[in-house]
Write a structure and sequence with these properties.
Blueprint lengths: L1 E4 L5 E3 L2 H6 L7 E7 L2 E5 L8 E4 L4 E3 L2 H6 L7 E7 L4 E6 L3
Antiparallel strand pairs: 1-7, 2-6, 3-4, 3-5, 4-8, 7-8
């Protein structure tokens, strides 16, 4: 498990290990949504109307709508997990 900070612009740096494990490339749209206390980033999703963001220099922007509606502040740390079965990145606010 990794921890990364949400920067003021809402970006999170995704570890290279995870990018390689999921075979992600810059410029590919990724779907970002929120479920059960977790921000989920995935390559494909049935609901094409979800927020789409792009990986750039290993960073992805967490949409402001998600941050605001779920009270996720910038400058906090997120726990980053990898769900290999579903090929998703899971971001959870660190309670400490």
């Amino acid at each position: 498990m990794y921890e990364r900070k949400i920067y003021k612009c809402g970006q999170v740096l995704i570890p290279k290990f995870i990018i390689k494990q999921l075979d992600l490339e810059e410029g590919i749209p990724l779907f970002v949504h929120y479920e059960n206390g977790t921000i989920i980033i995935e390559r494909s999703h049935d609901n094409q109307s979800l927020n789409q963001r792009y990986l750039y220099n290993g960073r992805i922007n967490i949409p402001s709508e998600i941050r605001q509606s779920h009270d996720i502040k910038t400058e906090i740390y997120l726990k980053i997990d990898l769900d290999l079965h579903s090929k998703r990145i899971l971001l959870k606010p660190n309670a400490s």
